[in-house]
Amino acid sequence: THTHTHTTVYVLPTRLRSSRYLAVCCITFSKPNCPGALPFSAASVRMLRGGLVLLLNTGRTTGYLRQIPSTSLPSKLPLHRFGSTYSSVRPSPRRSFFSMAECRSSITGSPAPASASASASSSPSSQQSTSETLFTNRLATEKSPYLLQHKHNPVDWYPWGEEAFQKAVEQNKPIFLSVGYSTCHWCHVMEHESFEDPSTAALMNENFVNIKVDREERPDVDKCYMSFVQALTKRGGWPMSVFLTPDLKPFMGGTYFPPRESYGQPSFKRVLSICAGRWQTQQADIQKTADQVAESLQEESLPSLVLEALPGTSLKGTKAMCQTCYKQIASSYDADLGGFGDAPKFPRPVVLNFLFHHYALENSDVEERKNARFMALHTLRAMASGGMHDHLAGGFHRYSVTEDWHIPHYEKMLYDQAQLARSYLEAVQLSGEAVYKRVARDICEYVCSPRMRDPAGGFYCAEDADSLPPQAGATKKLEGAFYVWREEEIRELLGERADLFCRYFDVRPEGNTPHGVDPHGDLDQQNTLIARRPLAEVAESFHLSVEAAEAELSACRKILNEVREKRPHPHLDDKILVAWNGMMISSLCLAHRVLRESKYLEYAITATNFVFDQLYSQETGLIRSYREGPS
């Protein structure tokens, strides 16, 4: 593009066989010294893992790769560093430059001369829209669904490994470590707000070596740095955001950071700027602090290790240890609503199982045993009635953001299902009550459904909290969209049965989401099913027997579940983790014994065979993760 004062040139470097991606660069020269194409001899090209990065030196500054919108071409572009941009046009191997027409065709989709079309046609992706191919980073070569979700971020992400560590040491840059998992709602929020933003990405790429970790693939990395974040902030969670020295020692951390100062937190850009600035001016002090932090974290891990190593000691505990543990649990028990502590409330199956075993200890205090049994059964019944329980397809969501178990965080995790199945099965053994048997069965049915189970037998990790709303043309994913209902929709589907269903599951015309628990408005006028009233009470108000009311509600649930299955499903994390599968296999074996259903044993055997066939060898032992092969 020629003007009186400048020339704008679009350059595409030659795509090599060893490169997965192709770079597009836009730069403005101060003089019209280019006849429409820029030979590579005028550029400095360096190779990075995952693609080519083109550096153009104009005498004033170095221009990095710039995103070019598919709708229009800028005639002038200020010179500064931008985030990575990738296209997919393949040049002839014999040519070292492209014409302006070819570049415009690649960026805008407009027709190109025959020579350009011929060279581009060998790439099947060359006809894709620019919006789909603009950014692709090295995470595209990973297997983790979480890392793959970030493969189109303009952030120059590295997976955890020596390449990233070496770069940090060589360039003396701090590391920004982001840890999460693919079905994490707030991980999605931070990605959309920050990691997809070119200006934030530029700040990250300029000042840090950026590493992404799937906590489910690397629980060791997650545990190490989560200990630091919890010690620093007195809380934890995901996404976890930690700043490290080049030798991997943490010096600052947190969880979710908003794009603007809110929720009582500084903006993510401000955090980035502060950490980058202090690294430049106070590096020695930061390194000293990080050394002390690392030493402290190592010392904190010693007591349990020493205790485990001492001869004659057992962490399984004595009577005194069990009583101490019981008292701590009882002090946080919610006598009105079940569970332990305030919102957000987690199911804590390990606590429930401890209470059952404490009840079973004959040498325990009689009153303690009685209370332990009551607390566990009350909590399990409250969770089963609440919105954290999927009343249509079975299984449990991750946790409740309200103290009454009503509004959940809607993701579903395999390890929660495995542990809660065992808790409900032990409740069946202890009480014999049908409610616990029904819930235990619906957890197992959910996990063993075709959606959550690999055809070869392994169980998948999780389902996301977010999905597209069922309305036609919806483009933005919302939390809980797959699971919630408008009252008029239920009435239209259920007809005359709707009154009974809406009364029992607290469905309201205005929605039943409490004020203040939906910061993004995803649940506006929506209903999360929760059984607030005893079935006998609701049945009596409709002049029905309990059995007749249950039959009606069962028919309603079936209708709604069939309709729900036609909605856009949440993202499925189809990794298969040995540890989580082990927990589920154990629970299915218990389900076979308690519920006397042989199919659960068959599912357990098939999953065990999958692990031994795909994730075990005598040389390596068990391999943690499988997705499209061991990973």
Care to describe what's here?
The protein is of the alpha+beta class. It is 42% helix and 12% strand. It is built from 22 helices and 23 strands. It has a five-stranded mixed β-sheet, sandwiched between helices. Strand 5 (51-57) and strand 6 form a beta hairpin. Helix 13 (349-360) runs parallel beside helix 15 (414-431) and helix 21 runs antiparallel to helix 22 (598-614). The longest helix has 20 residues, at 366-385. The model is unreliable at 1-133 and 302-315 (pLDDT under 50).
Oligomer: single chain
How many strands? 23
Content-based structural category: alpha+beta
Strand order of the largest sheet: 8-10-9-11-12
Distance between the termini: 48 Å
| Main beta sheet strand tally, sense and closure | 5 strands, mixed
As a percent range, the share of strand residues is: 5-15%
Q: Whole-number radius of gyration?
A: 29 Å
Helix content bin:
40-55%
Average pLDDT level = 80
Number of helices: 22
**Which stretches of 5+ consecutive residues score pLDDT under 50?**
1-133, 302-315
What gross morphology would you assign? globular
